[in-house]
Write a structure and sequence with these properties.
Elements (H helix, E strand, L loop, with lengths): L1 H33 L2 H21 L8 H19 L6 H24 L1 H20 L1 H6 L4 H26 L3 E3 L3 E5 H21 L6 H29 L14 H22 L3 H4 L2
Antiparallel strand pairs: 1-2
Length: 287
């Protein structure tokens, strides 16, 4: 009987995921392909603010300051506008920023337990760095010569990797990947996500990014698949520290917006700096 109850529940979750994708994908295609870049800027900033709000709500049961949260949100908007107006992040600063976000995120539990007085400001500023600064790299990607293709590319590779990891893991997963952080993640699902990521890069090469070579397909596929899964585990650790299960319920079948973009938060800046550092910028990468 338990198995009979599980099957319809799984179908229901699958259906909600499909419905969400059916609604979102055409809208996203029109937004990126046909509308003015300022529409994409507004989309990214709105997504950042909603995601950051979900992150701040993690800590609503603690004593935290609403005015500080507003300041953190405004800081994220300022970062996105700065990128749109032409500010370029120096590569060493950008890479150091990614390392700092990961390091501070891993240290948050210790900081919160030892120095409660510092918890609120650190949580607020970390939200601006983790969500606002990292996702604002979408605006930098969109501003490149082949920015439209790059936006579609990083979204599709990240989404396919997440989807492959979810379905392979839920169907065949038996070996836990990181049980203390996310009990549902499996090694089989992780491998499925990497394979799905590489396959999507290959499809993109023969679809709309013909300048990719086979080396790029393998390296970028494995790179984005790996950092995307790291982003997923990273958010799971933040939720565990905050004592919440889901970031929200805004997306049927997916949970909160942060649950949906946790991988993208990592893949977008990493892909940006891969293009800038390894490939020498988009003029070389897009030809």
């Amino acid at each position: 009987m338990a198995a009979l109850r599980y099957f319809p529940d799984r179908i229901s979750v699958h259906s909600r995921r499909v419905y969400t994708a059916v609604v979102f994908l055409p809208f996203f295609f029109v937004l990126v392909q046909y509308l003015h870049p300022i529409a994409f800027l507004a989309f990214v900033l709105a997504g950042i603010l909603l995601t950051q709000y979900e992150y701040y709500r993690f800590h609503a049961h603690r004593a935290w300051c609403v005015p500080l949260a507003i300041v953190g949100s405004l800081l994220s908007v300022w970062l996105g506008l700065s990128f749109y107006l032409g500010y370029q992040v120096p590569i060493p600063v950008g890479l150091a920023g990614i390392v700092a976000v990961v390091g501070i995120g891993c240290l948050l539990p210790r900081i919160g337990s030892r120095t409660r007085g510092l918890t609120d400001p650190i949580i607020i500023l970390f939200g601006s760095a983790y969500i606002g600064w990292m996702l604002s790299h979408l605006i930098l990607l969109r501003g490149f010569e082949c920015g439209i293709a790059l936006i579609f590319f990083v979204f599709l590779v990240t989404w396919v990797s997440d989807t492959a990891a979810y379905y392979v893991g839920s169907s065949f997963g038996t070996h836990k990947l990181a049980p203390q952080i996310s009990p549902g993640k499996t090694i089989e699902g992780s491998v499925g996500g990497l394979v799905g990521s590489v396959m999507m890069v290959v499809i993109a090469k023969f679809g709309f990014m013909p300048w990719l070579d086979l080396e790029d397909c393998l390296i970028v596929g494995l790179l984005l698949g790996s950092v995307g899964q790291a982003g997923d585990l990273f958010e799971s650790r933040l939720k565990r520290y905050a004592g919440v299960k889901d970031s929200g319920t805004i997306l049927p079948g997916h949970g909160g917006l942060l649950d949906r973009v946790d991988s993208l938060i990592f893949t977008v800046p990493v892909f940006y700096y891969y293009v800038m550092l390894i490939k020498g910028g988009t003029k070389e990468f897009c030809t």
